[in-house]
Structure formats: C-alpha cells, structure tokens
Q: What sequence folds into this?
C-alpha cells in the first residue's frame, strides 16, 4: 500500500491539487480566488504531465561536452508543460484584466454582490 | 517540387496572424477593418484554390512547416473537407464584419477599434488552425487563443452586462479547455503520441490489446466534453445567451456562426481520424452526444420561445441548432457525420444572416430589441426584413432553404440505426418548436405597428441610422444567396463532404 503511494506520489499530489483548484472555482465567491483556483488546477495538470515524462536518474536530453547520456528524460512532456504555462499565464492575465474592468464598473469582485448590482441596474 | 497550392493553408493562417499583429498598431479602426476584410477575402480565395486542388485531384496532403519531418516539425493536413470548412469560415467571417460594420463602429470606442480587429483576425487564424492541424496539442493552443479572442469580441461593447457575460463565458471556457488538456495528458501518457496519425495507430493498437481501456475512455470523454462545453452542448450552454445575445452585431454573428463550429470541427477530426467512429460508438460516447444533442434541440427551442429580446432568442436557437450537429455526430455513422457537417455549413450561413438582419432591424427602429417593439420594422429596411425571413424559414426547414436539406439528411441518416424513432420524433418536435417562435417573429417584423410605436421610432431613430447601409445590404444578399445555394445545389456540396470525410481518415 505504502509502496503504491510512494510510486504514484506525483499523480496523487496532482489529483489532490486538482480537487483543491476545482473546489475553489466552484465554491469561492471572490472572482480573483476563482482565477487562483484555475491556476491551481493548471498546476496540477502540469505536475502530472512533467512527472509522466520523468525518468529516474535521467538527465536533460542535451548533447553536451560529455557526449550523449543514454538515460535521458522524455523531453516532449516538458515542452508541453512550458507551452501550457505560457497559455495559463496569458489566460490569467486576461481574466485579471477583465476582473479589474468589472471592479471599475460595479465596484465589487464578489460574484453574488456583482450579480445583484447588475440586476438592480437592469431594472 | 510539390504543387504551389499546397502552401495555401499555411498562407491563410499566417496572413490572419500577421494581420492581427498589424491591426494592433494601425492608427484607425477603419484601416484595420479594411485589412481584416482583405485577409478574409484572401483566405477565402486561397481556400477555394485548396478546395479546387484537393477535390479536383481527390487527394489530401500534409504540409510540413519548414520541411521538418513528422515527429519534430509541425504539420497541417488539408483535404476537401478542411478546405470547404476554411472557405465557409473565412467567407462568413468577412461578411459578418462587413455587414455589422456600422453597429461595430458605433458600439466599440474608436481607440479600441484596431484591437477589436486584432481579435477578429486571431479568431480567424484559430478557426483555420483548428481545422487544418494534425497535432492535438497545437489544437489545444489554438483553442485557448480562440477563447481569449472570442471573450474579447464579446466584451468589446464594454457595457456592464457584457462584462459579466464575458466573465461567465471565460470561466466556462476555461473549464472546457482544462478538461480538454487533461484528456490530452492522459492520452499522451498511454500512447506517447500527440500527432494524429501515429496517435490513431496507437489508439487502434490499445483497443486491439485491451490495455488501458478505462484511461482511454476517460481521455476520450474528457476531450469530447471539454470541446462540448466550449461549443455550447446542451447542459453546458448557460453562458451562451448572454454572451452572444449582448455582444455587438458582428461579434454575435461570428461567435454563433463560426467560433462554436471551430471546436466542433476539431471534434469531428478527432472522432474520424484519431478515435474512429466505431470506437466512439463502442465506448458509449456517441450515445451521450446523441442524448445531449436531442435534449439541446428541444430545450434550446423551449428557452427561445420564452425570449422577447430578438438577439437572445437567436442565441437560444443556436443552442438548438448545435444540438442538431451533436445529434448527427451521436448517430455514430458516416451518414450522420455528413449531415452534421452539412448542418455546420448551413448554420454558419444562416445564423450570421439572422444576427446581421436583427441588428439592422433594431438600428432602424430606434435600437429597440424586443420583438414587440420591432413590429413593422421590415418595411423600414426591406433587405433586412427579407434576410431575416429567409433565415427564419431556413431554420424552420422549409424546402429550397438550407435548413430543409440538413433536416432531410439527418432524418435519412437516422434510418436503420437503433435510435431511429427517437431521432425522427425529436426532429419533428424541434421543427414544430422552431416554427412556434420563428413564425411569430417574422409576422411581427412584417406586422403593422401601432401609431405610438411609429411615432416613437420616428422620433428616436437618428438620420444616419436610417440611411441606406450598402455594406449591410451586400453582406445580407451574399448570405441569403449562400442559404439558397445550400438549399438547392446541395448535391455538389455533399459530394465534396463525402470525398473529404473519406480522405480525412
């Protein structure tokens, strides 16, 4: 049992992180906390992805002065994580800018207050 | 030496991306608008070239960027199916921006207008890339680009309700793309591939050996539902009416007509090329799509019936129409897939037409949006009235219009499948429901307005709004012709789809 946990430690951490993120997205009323939730979810996926490409004792897949090391980690997941981080950063920036705009317009970033104020304005 | 036409798909995407960057630094919105229209036209013509080349030769080719071979470089794949989608996407995009121009220049602040066109260019680029890509991860990146661009198109009007609608849209979209990414990670971890061709071989091998079956099913489910959330599949459609109904006319037309279709195009490519229809059928994903599709057809129409705001009504109707497409995919047969592809084309012509005409009708009626206050508006701009009527008749499914043909093909595709009865009953019910809200809408547009409404409209409509809008007229006429062409000359289109879907595999 303990063995199983140790070998799958990255996957388990990823699942826990993903759950925390998702819970934040669903439950939090504060819009910025929701965005943080999305970020935690993304981190979970990246952790999972990076750990999938990791080979125990492997080196970076670079041909250096010492020649090519036979045991190297899978570079594709690392590349994907990098791309994923870029995507996640840009989405976060966009979401934060949008929330700032909402705050200037309605003076709040609490979702229920926001909807209430918008509804009051519409009437 | 490969034929020069094989460069065209790449040129289209590259042109759109470059135009997006250039638009951002152009001094005026008009210049950016002209540039974007030019890019749409160029992309339309180039895609026509690709279509003629691939359909003429009955071939599908892979374009490797920078000649780096498959696992290292990025590649595009183009066949008649992709080319046809690209033709429609770029053509309708241009027409939406042309027809909605007057509303757009009024709704968006002058200083922001160049940026609006940046986002429009990015949307076009991502639509084309989603259609042509051979790499699932490139697909994911362009999904996110399209999310940001589409959200920006919604919020361009910069009013309070728009901002809230954008927030909702953004959060739902992020959830959708997160699911897609997670599915992708699982798929990559069990197959070790991201390119579609080796991926499909690996998936087939996994199926044959029976290994990692649960993981495979979860990955497929996550990817399908993720794309479904983003294309407003029924239970996940709550963000759509606010986002599409409140945006400026051109944005509504682009979002409803095209952006939703980009994700569906990727889903179709995945289903056909990577997972194969048999596997989607076997693991039950088809049935889920079918169920959600059928529910969406009914529930979307029911919500549309309760709506008085004309654009929100059209937005709910999009939910129903997307339901048709998912129903076709859910049948799990090539015939159903073909009907769905045809419906994508019909809806891509029809819904922008309806949005443009509804926008124009509101403009000439003192910016009223409720159907009650649009009474008699058809007489104030006859082209808009006729265009709206044509769109509505096509949505209901009257012969000679595009919508009829797709319903016919959906019904034919459902014959001899297990779900024949359910599909036929729901198509009939949905047609009835469509008629129940589109017919009153058309009647009220051509109705007689009471005197006080006439007076109100006369007093509150600015003279420049009342003036003849040539750009709108041109765009509406082109879209009407498109709907009629799809409704009468559907055989050649079906032949192209047939050849395209065969070559897609």
A:
């Amino acid at each position: 049992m303990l063995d199983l946990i140790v070998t799958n430690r990255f996957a388990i951490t990823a699942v826990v992180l993903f759950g925390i993120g998702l819970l934040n997205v669903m439950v939090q009323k504060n819009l910025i906390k929701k965005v943080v939730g999305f970020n935690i979810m993304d981190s979970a996926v990246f952790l999972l992805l990076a750990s999938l490409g990791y080979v125990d004792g492997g080196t970076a897949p670079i041909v250096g002065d010492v020649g090519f090391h036979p045991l190297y980690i899978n570079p594709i997941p690392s590349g994907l994580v990098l791309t994923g981080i870029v995507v996640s950063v840009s989405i976060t920036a966009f979401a934060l800018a949008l929330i700032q705009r909402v705050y200037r317009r309605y003076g709040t970033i609490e979702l229920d207050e926001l909807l209430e104020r918008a509804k009051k304005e519409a009437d | 030496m490969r034929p020069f036409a094989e460069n065209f798909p790449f040129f289209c995407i590259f042109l759109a991306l470059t135009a997006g960057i250039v638009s951002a630094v152009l001094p005026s919105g008009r210049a950016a608008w002209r540039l974007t229209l030019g890019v749409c036209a160029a992309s339309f013509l180039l895609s026509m070239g690709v279509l003629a080349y691939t359909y003429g030769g009955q071939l599908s080719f892979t374009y490797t960027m920078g000649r780096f071979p498959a696992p290292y470089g990025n590649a595009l794949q183009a066949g008649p199916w992709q080319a046809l989608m690209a033709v429609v996407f770029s053509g309708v995009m241009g027409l939406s921006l042309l027809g909605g121009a007057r509303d757009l220049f009024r709704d968006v602040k002058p200083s922001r207008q160049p940026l609006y066109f940046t986002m429009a260019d990015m949307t076009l680029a991502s639509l084309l890339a989603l259609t042509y890509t051979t790499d699932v991860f490139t697909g994911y990146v362009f999904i996110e680009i399209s999310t940001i661009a589409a959200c920006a198109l919604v919020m361009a009007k910069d009013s309070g309700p728009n901002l809230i609608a954008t927030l909702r849209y953004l959060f739902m979209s992020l959830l959708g793309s997160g699911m897609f990414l997670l599915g992708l990670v699982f798929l990559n971890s069990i197959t070790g591939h991201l390119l579609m061709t080796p991926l499909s071989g690996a998936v087939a091998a996994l199926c044959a050996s029976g290994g990692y079956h649960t993981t495979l099913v979860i990955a497929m489910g996550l990817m399908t539902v993720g794309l479904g959330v983003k294309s407003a599949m029924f239970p996940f459609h709550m963000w759509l009416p606010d986002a599409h109904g409140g945006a400026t006319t051109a944005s509504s037309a682009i979002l409803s007509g095209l952006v939703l279709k980009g994700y569906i195009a990727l889903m179709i490519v995945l289903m056909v090329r990577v997972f194969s229809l048999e596997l989607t059928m076997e693991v039950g994903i088809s049935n889920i799509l079918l169920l959600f599709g059928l529910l969406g057809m009914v529930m979307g129409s029911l919500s549309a019936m309760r709506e008085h705001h004309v654009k929100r009504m059209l937005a709910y109707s999009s939910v129903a129409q997307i339901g048709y497409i998912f129903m076709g995919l859910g049948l799990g047969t090539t015939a159903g897939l073909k009907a769905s592809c045809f419906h994508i084309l019909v809806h891509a012509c029809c819904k922008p037409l309806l949005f443009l005409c509804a926008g124009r009708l509101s403009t000439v009626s003192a910016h009223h949006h409720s159907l009650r206050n649009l009474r008699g508006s058809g007489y104030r701009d006859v082209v808009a009235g006729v265009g709206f009527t044509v769109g509505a008749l096509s949505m209901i499914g009257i012969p000679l219009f595009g919508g009829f043909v797709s319903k016919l093909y959906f019904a034919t595709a459902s014959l001899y499948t297990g779900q024949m009865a359910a599909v036929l009953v729901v198509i009939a019910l949905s047609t009835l429901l469509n008629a129940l809200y589109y017919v009153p809408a058309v009647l009220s547009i051509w109705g007689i307005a009471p005197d006080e409404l006439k007076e109100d409209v006369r007093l509150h409509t600015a003279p420049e709004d009342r003036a003849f809008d040539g750009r709108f007229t041109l765009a509406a006429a082109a879209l009407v012709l498109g709907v009629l062409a799809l409704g009468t000359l559907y055989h050649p289109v079906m032949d192209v789809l047939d050849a395209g879907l065969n070559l897609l595999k």
